[in-house]
Design goal:
six-stranded antiparallel β-sheet, Beta-Lactamase, Hypothetical protein af1432
Length: 600
């Protein structure tokens, strides 16, 4: 609403300025027309009366003008004659005077209306004499320029001398401006109409012109307001080629740049949240590459981890672009990927071609950029981004995002190191379990391997597969509370000994109870001896009530138990093992898991 009001005020101001301009122009035109009208009157008198006066003089005997003034009767005729020559509307505005001198030389005299001209001759002054001499040479002389003169009158001199005259004659015509202006004022209705027309036309044209200026400004202001409210999709478009058009294009460039940078900031913020979340390891790095790839249309993103002789593909996007842990030899990418300084490099055509062949992209339409990833001033990898067209804005954004990728890569490495340490501790713990009995050595490792294989066949997620591995390694941790005599007893266990053995799942859960985030692992350890038909221990769970990790471990545990040697028997052959496994479908095992496990 404020934008609309301000634009309306601007339009009103511009309209007022145009109206004022129109009035000034109108009155100026009216003033100039007054001056021009005087010139027209003079020109009209000269054009209409010069020839008639000349013809009158040429038809008369010599010294006709002098004789007219000498004879009273003829003098009246001359006056009447010249009055007829003067236009009727300007009888009081134009006066005539006559001058003569001896032919070719002498002083100039003004003729008076009297019976004896010689007695009434008046000698003219020097300035008038110069004007009269000038008129003799030029025939017609304007004393003042008719158009530019702002005095009270206009004076014109005519040469009225014929070849038969004894004297030289000049007729002086004086036109009074004041009377002409009175005549023009008499036409004031025309003047008022002219002024009114000028004002109306100025208002119409002013409104049109001001609207043509304020409309694009109003559109710019409205869109800028919407953009400032957070709608980054707003764009400023125009077909104008003037300054307003240039302003619109400039604002559009600003909007595109701001939109692009805010989008980059959002991506950086999402990466920061991912790094600070519970996501870790490869999953974190894949999340980061997905976020970067989503910002740039039709792009491919690679995070390459620097190793001794090659780059290792730590993550890529879109998914499946390159398998993880793919090794890319340094020799494939010449100097670009051997960059050991802080330089951001555009990937050369050769490297783009090789990279695109690996990525299965159209190499003729790809451009790339390689940015070193640093940790403690050491190059640890590269962020490589390719896309059909890469401008400066994209390069700037990718360079900013590279810092976030470095943080994510460091987080992944730290997570992997923690996982390795954690896994090592678990292996040590599981092997300490197996070490209680020579007959179970390596059992936990084998059960873990079989369990992970089955979990992957089920297409469980990465984190779930990790949980399966940990739970499988620790599934018999409860046996730490059972003596070696019972575990290694070659003969049949007594009922009391068997009941004690049956306690190891619960004991294992209790051992793990103080470890945070181990809930699923504890449940798997507790229930890995449950049976599909509900006759297992310790809780008699059945079918889908048994946790899936526990069901997986059950299959792997039994497989290893019947294939390995025990104190009381030898391991069964493959056919016997398959018969046992199949016979226990729907009883001990989840039927679907057994079928999947036994697939070649």
């Amino acid at each position: 609403m404020k934008v609309h009001i301000s634009s309306m005020l601007l339009q009103m101001k511009l309209t007022a300025l145009f109206v004022l301009f129109g009035i000034i122009v109108g009155f100026s035109s009216y003033f100039i027309s007054t001056i021009t009208s005087t010139k027209l009157v003079v020109d009209s008198f000269v054009n209409n009366n010069t020839n008639p006066i000349g013809q009158l003089i040429r038809k008369s005997p010599h010294d006709w003008i002098y004789n007219l003034f000498a004879d009273e009767k003829d003098s009246q005729k001359a006056r009447d004659l010249f009055k007829e020559i003067i236009p009727a509307n300007f009888k009081d505005s134009i006066s005539l005077s006559f001058y003569y001198r001896s032919r070719g030389n002498g002083y100039w005299y003004q003729l008076k209306d009297t019976s004896n001209p010689r007695q009434e001759m008046i000698k003219v002054d020097r300035e008038t004499s110069d004007d009269l001499n000038n008129a003799m040479e030029k025939n017609i002389v304007y004393k003042e320029p008719a158009f530019f003169n702002f005095g009270q009158s206009h004076t014109i001199y005519f040469n009225a001398t014929t070849e038969h005259d004894t004297y030289d004659y000049i007729v002086k015509t004086k036109i009074n401006r004041e009377n002409i202006l009175k005549y023009i004022v008499d036409k004031k209705k025309v003047g008022i109409g002219y002024v009114a027309f000028t004002i109306i036309l100025s208002i119409i044209l002013g409104a049109m012109f001001s609207r043509s200026i304020t409309k694009p400004i109003r559109d710019l202001s409205r869109k800028a307001h919407i953009f400032s409210e957070g709608d980054l999709s707003v764009r400023f478009e125009t077909k104008r080629k003037d300054d307003i058009g240039e302003l619109t294009l400039s604002m559009n460039r600003v909007a595109v740049n701001i939109s692009h940078r805010i989008k980059t900031i959002h991506t950086m913020n999402r990466i920061d949240k991912a790094v600070s979340s519970s996501i870790s390891g490869k999953e974190l790095l894949n999340k980061v590459t997905d976020l970067i790839q989503s910002q740039f249309n039709n792009s491919a993103v690679l995070v390459l981890e620097k190793e001794k002789e090659a780059y290792n593909v730590a993550a890529s996007s879109p998914e499946g672009l390159l398998p993880e842990n793919t090794k890319i030899p340094y020799s494939d990418f010449s100097h670009v990927f051997l960059n050991n300084d802080n330089t951001v490099l555009n990937i050369d055509n050769k490297s783009v071609s090789i990279l695109n062949s690996r990525l299965r992209t159209d190499e003729t339409k790809q451009q790339g950029i390689s940015i070193p990833l640093k940790q403690s001033d050491h190059i640890v990898g590269l962020l490589v981004v390719t896309m059909p067209s890469m401008d400066d804005r994209n390069r700037e954004s990718i360079i900013l995002l590279a810092d976030q990728v470095s943080v994510a890569l460091l987080s992944m490495k730290e997570s992997e190191e923690k996982e390795l340490m954690y896994e090592g501790m678990l292996l040590a713990l599981s092997r300490s379990i197996d070490a209680k009995s020579a007959w179970t050595a390596g059992h936990s490792d084998r059960v873990a391997a079989h369990s992970v294989s089955l979990a992957k066949k089920l297409r469980l997620g990465r984190e779930t597969v990790k949980l399966v591995k940990i739970a499988a390694l620790l599934h018999d941790i409860g046996k730490l509370g059972i003596s070696e005599e019972i575990l290694d007893k070659p003969g049949k266990l007594t009922d009391e000994e068997y009941e004690l053995i049956k306690k190891h799942p619960e004991m294992g859960e209790k051992i793990l109870s103080d470890i945070p985030n181990f809930e699923q692992i504890r449940y798997a350890v507790r229930h890995h001896h449950e049976r599909w038909d509900g006759t297992g221990y310790p809780d008699g769970l059945k079918k889908d009530n048994i946790p899936v990790i526990a069901r997986i471990i059950t299959v792997a545990d039994v497989w290893d138990a019947i294939t390995a040697d025990r104190p009381y028997r030898k391991g069964f052959n493959r056919d016997k093992v398959l018969d046992i496994m199949k016979s226990e479908k729907g009883k001990l095992f989840d039927p679907a898991l057994v079928d999947l496990f036994l697939e070649e």
